[in-house]
Every structure is written in structure tokens, then in C-alpha cells.
Specification:
Elements (H helix, E strand, L loop, with lengths): L3 E4 L4 E4 L7 E6 L10 H19 L3 E6 L6 H10 L3 H18 L15 H13 L3 E4 L2 E4 L23 E2 L11 E7 L2 H5 L11 E3 L1 H13 L3 E7 L3 H16 L4 E7 L2 E2 L16 H6 L4 H10 L7 E2 L2 H23 L9 H19 L4 H20 L5 H18 L11 H15 L3 H13 L2 E6 L2 E6 L3
Parallel strand pairs: 3-4, 3-10, 7-8, 10-11, 12-13
Antiparallel strand pairs: 1-2, 5-6, 6-8, 8-9, 14-15
Length: 472
């Protein structure tokens, strides 16, 4: 079995085949930093993490880019109200976003480009669209002409008969019914100038629309055709539809081969969590209420398939915390077990091997982690009974440890917050010191990389080597 993903473009599960063998180029829509990201946003971000981890487990080198939107209508409005520039206003929210992401143990993307750092690339893309007749200027505002791009609407299955040629929409978010020419560039208003949200462009001072930013940054770092583009399902229309239109109209090539979308988080009453509606819970609020972010991670990833809605409830969070304890207790128990020369329980060994295959198959089947975890918890029950009866021999123990390693490659929940340096790591640090003393820097660097793989970061200082556990 190889990785299959549900591709929104075709509405089918398809085998994942990257453009370049062995490399997966992944673009994921990141946060708009006008507030703290809420649990619904983090469900998407953890879905990206699951995807990226499973691509790595499957042997791909992953090039993952996640944008940070640090200029948009709401940011400008809020910064103006606070009497700040947009960069002053967004800075703490960018920091909070990365902090929360690390608390949830998401692996870092290779890049987190910011919109305000890529306005030049956006202007260049808009110029290219204007040259091709796909965009036009109306008194300093620039719009994309959807009539110039016949496939418009194919991702979201838009009924093109309803499109109103020549009508325009200036806001970045709108309903399908209002699909019309959309803004690529917005002429600077006095408020934009006051908060530092205006740039020079051949078509006049102004600022980019939201949609153009993702096209420009994705192509800048990943090339004109990406392997996978991911986002929350609420971005499907108009954002992703517009990304496709802008990119493909400019390049004449397919923009992304696989489009994958994660579903909403709803509140306890079933209403969609949304910042704009004021109906949301932040990770900070959950932490303040005593919830462990690692349990929140397990809840968001493990409780429902990414394409099914997920209801945030106290019972759900408590259930995840209980699962976390069970998994950690079990891992401890297996690690501490000393099978010695005991004869293996052949049945347990068999079912552990079967569970490993079934777990892997579930992940390959459109990242069905909940199904995979179901298999794992089933096995935990069986193995706990075998441990109680002292029936776990060396082969079964090894197989159980391998299974836990497989599972934690996605979950990353087994390590406790304070990781003690174990003997092996201490030995490696000593070896590296030895290599440095004898000026064997190649060996020293290799050991540093090996430690990094284990999540340990070394810092060379005047007083010797310091280490810390990397935030992954
Ligand atoms: Zn985007």
C-alpha cells in the first residue's frame, strides 16, 4: 500500500505521486495574525503536521511552506484602532502562533514566509496577469478577470452560469453567490498609510489582496507546480479557487496536483468555530483551564478523521487525556519489561505485527489516524493482559516497541515535557567533544546532526557545551 489522498480537485482518493521522486513540495495556508489562532485553526495546522509527518515516514524529503498573513483588512482595522503599525500590531500574534504550534508539538515547516516580506513578488505576479489580459486596473485597484480563465470554479464546483461578468468584489471573503472579479491590489487609503500598509507599485500605491499572497509565495519557494496544497475547508472558496485562477492564468501550468482540505471544529452545540463570529476557543484558554496541550494535540488529531467535523467538548478533551495516559503508561511498561529468556507469546507477536501493518495501512488510506489508533488501542489491551500474565518474550517486546515508535512518528506524544538526557545521548556528546578536540569536525558535525534527530540541540558556548530539547 502506498499513500492515497482524497483530492478535492477530482473528488477521489488518489495515489500520491510527486513530480520529483522522493520529494514532496507542500504549501499550507497559515494564520492571519490579527488575533490568537483558535482551536479550529490549530486543527488545520495539526492536519498539516500529520500530512508532513506521514510523508516523511513514507520516505519523502518534505519541502513545507506555510505563510503568515500579516496584512489584511482586519489587521489594518485593528492596528488603526490600537494606534499601531501593522508590524507592531501583528508581532505578538506571530510569536504566539509559533509558541502554540510548538506547544502542540507540530514540526516546524521549512519556511514561514510573511506576506509583508513578499509584496515585490506579488506585484510581479499581478503585472504578469495584466500583461496576459487576466487582470485590469480600475482607478488604482486591480482586479482579476474571471471571464479570462474558463476553468474558474472547478475546485469548488461553482455553477458558472451564475457568474456575473464584469461585476467586482473588493473584500477578500465572500459567498459563492457573489463570485465575481476579485481584488488583487487595493489602492492605498489614508488608514493604510497610517498603519504602514502601503507599497509602491506600477499601478499605484496600495496593498495586495489576500489571495495573491499565497500564489506568489507558494511559487516563489516551491515552483510553479506544487505537489500538495492544503488548507481548512472554509478556504476552498473563494481563497483556493482564486489561488488557482491567479497562478494558472499567469503560468499556463497546473498550480497544485493534490488539494487536501480539513474539516471544521464545532463548539459543543455544533456551531462552527469562527473568529469573525466571535465563537471560538484558543489554545491559551484551554491551557488556562488545565488542559495539557499534548492531550489537545491527541484530541484534534485522533478523535475524528480530518475530513469529518470535530466537536470540541470537555468530555472529548478528557477522553484524549485518558488515552494519552494509557499510551504513556503502556510505553513505560513495555520499556521496563525484562523478558530475559522467556518464551514469546507467539499469538501476541503475531497480533503486534498485524497491528503494525494495519496501522500503516490506515495512515496510507487518506491519513486515517483514528482508525489506526483504534487498532493500536485494541492491541494495548491484549498486550497489557500478556504483561499481567508475564507472557511477553523478547521478540514480542521488540515488536511492541517498534509499533510504539511507528505510532509516535505521527503522534509525538510519548515524550514527557522534561526529557532527561539518557546515557546514549551523554555518550554522544562526549564523543563529539573528543572529536572537536582532535579537530575532526566532520565527525563532530555528524554527531550534532544525529543528536538533532533525537530532538537534542547543542549550543557551544565559552563555558562548554549546553544542550536543550528542540521544539519540534
Ligand atoms: Zn492561502
Amino acid at each position: 500500500m502506498t499513500l492515497h489522498l482524497h483530492n478535492t480537485l477530482t473528488g477521489r482518493k488518489e495515489e500520491f505521486r510527486p513530480i520529483e521522486p522522493g520529494v514532496a513540495r507542500l504549501y499550507t495556508c497559515g494564520p492571519t495574525v490579527w488575533h490568537y489562532s483558535h482551536v479550529g485553526n490549530f486543527r488545520s495546522f495539526l492536519f498539516y503536521d500529520l500530512l508532513r509527518r506521514h510523508l516523511r515516514v513514507s520516505g519523502y524529503r518534505v519541502e513545507h511552506v506555510m505563510n503568515i498573513t500579516d496584512v489584511d483588512d482586519r489587521i489594518i482595522e485593528q492596528a488603526a484602532a490600537a494606534g499601531m503599525t501593522i508590524s507592531e500590531f501583528t508581532r505578538p500574534y506571530v510569536e504566539a502562533f509559533l509558541e502554540d504550534l510548538h506547544a502542540l508539538r507540530a514540526q516546524d515547516a521549512e519556511r514561514y514566509p510573511r506576506a509583508t516580506g513578499h509584496v515585490e513578488e506579488m506585484i510581479a505576479l499581478i503585472e504578469r496577469l495584466m500583461e496576459g489580459g487576466h487582470a485590469y486596473d480600475v482607478d488604482g485597484d486591480v482586479y482579476f478577470r474571471i471571464a479570462s480563465f474558463p476553468p474558474y470554479g472547478s475546485l469548488s464546483h461553482l455553477d458558472r452560469a451564475g457568474l456575473r461578468a464584469g461585476a467586482r468584489v473588493a473584500t477578500d471573503k465572500y459567498e459563492k453567490e457573489s463570485a465575481t472579479d476579485f481584488a488583487l491590489w487595493k489602492r492605498a487609503k489614508a488608514e493604510d498609510e497610517r498603519v504602514g500598509a502601503a507599497w509602491e507599485a506600477p499601478f499605484g500605491r496600495g496593498r495586495p489582496g489576500w489571495h495573491i499572497e499565497c500564489s506568489a509565495m507558494a511559487m516563489q519557494y516551491l515552483g510553479e507546480t506544487l505537489d500538495i496544497h492544503a488548507g481548512g475547508v472554509d478556504l476552498l472558496f473563494p481563497h483556493h479557487e482564486n489561488e488557482i485562477a491567479q497562478s494558472e492564468a499567469a503560468t499556463g501550468r497546473q498550480f497544485a496536483r493534490y488539494w487536501v482540505h480539513s474539516e471544521h471544529v464545532t463548539d459543543a452545540t455544533g456551531a462552527k468555530m469562527s473568529k469573525s463570529d466571535g465563537n471560538f476557543t484558543t489554545l491559551r484558554e484551554l491551557r488556562a483551564a488545565g488542559h495539557d496541550p499534548v492531550a489537545v494535540r491527541l484530541f484534534l488529531l485522533g478523535n475524528a478523521h480530518y475530513r469529518a467535523p470535530l466537536r470540541l467538548t470537555d468530555e472529548g478533551l478528557e477522553g484524549a487525556a485518558a488515552q494519552l495516559r494509557r499510551l504513556r503508561d503502556f510505553a513505560d511498561r513495555v520499556r521496563r519489561s525484562r523478558p530475559g529468556l522467556r518464551t514469546d507469546d507467539a499469538a501476541l507477536f503475531e497480533s503486534t505485527q498485524d497491528a503494525r501493518s494495519a496501522y500503516r495501512a490506515a495512515l496510507d488510506d487518506d491519513l486515517n489516524l483514528p482508525e489506526g489508533l483504534g487498532v493500536v488501542f485494541e492491541l494495548v489491551r491484549e498486550a497489557n493482559a500478556a504483561l499481567d500474565a508475564d507472557r511477553v518474550g523478547p521478540a514480542a517486546r521488540e515488536a511492541l516497541l517498534a509499533l510504539l515508535e511507528d505510532v509516535d512518528a505521527h503522534l509525538d506524544v510519548l515524550r514527557e515535557e522534561e526529557v532527561a538526557l539518557d546515557v546514549a545521548v551523554e555518550r554522544l556528546i562526549a564523543e563529539r567533544e573528543e572529536a572537536r578536540r582532535s579537530r575532526d569536525f566532520a565527525t563532530a558535525d555528524r554527531i550534532r546532526d544525529e543528536l538533532r534527530e533525537r530532538g537534542i540541540v547543542l549550543e557551544d558556548s565559552r563555558d562548554g557545551v549546553r544542550w536543550k530539547v528542540a521544539q519540534r
